[in-house]
Amino acid sequence: MSGHFTESDFVPLNLAILTVSDSRTEETDKSGQTLRERALDTGHQVVDKRIVPDDVYQMRAVVSAWIADSDVHVIISTGGTGITGRDSTPEALQPLFDKSIEGFGELYRAISLEEIGSSSMQSRAIAGLANGTLIFCLPGSTGACRTGWDKILKSQLDIRTRPCNFAQMFPRLLES
């Protein structure tokens, strides 16, 4: 999904990246590093990156702080979106959303279907908006993060993508 680009200047956004894992460390967090590198290579700023266990309250604490921080425009999480007993990212973060962005999960699974077949239905990728901050929750595999960034987020976080994108919405996200 390459999108159509205009000649306007790129506008960097401030991103925070959350890896949800009971076992990963900074040295072994390939998914979080993939997202960080891709965001930086695109021209965005990564203002924070954390790893937390698959614990609802620890996830909510970190993400709530980022939602309250006006310097964080976008939060991308990786991990905890499956169906096992410990996977709880959607349950942790969805209650924080002011609005859900259902199309993100639908689009992610449709694209993923082409890559991994019917296993894509096991992904509970979700997205939402909270206090003017966009939140995207991706599965934990490095391939899933590449798919999410390369085929959806890269263009949607680029103000030059037409006919529309998330980046151009920032001035209006908090209007009442």
UniProtKB/TrEMBL annotation:
Residues 16-160 form the MoaB/Mog domain. One of its GO terms (cellular component) is cytosol. Pfam families: MoCF_biosynth (PF00994). SMART domains: MoCF_biosynth. Keywords: Molybdenum cofactor biosynthesis. Pathway: Cofactor biosynthesis; molybdopterin biosynthesis. One of its GO terms (biological process) is Mo-molybdopterin cofactor biosynthetic process. Signal peptide: none annotated. May be involved in the biosynthesis of molybdopterin. Belongs to the MoaB/Mog family. This is Molybdenum cofactor biosynthesis protein B. It comes from Candidatus Thiodiazotropha endolucinida.
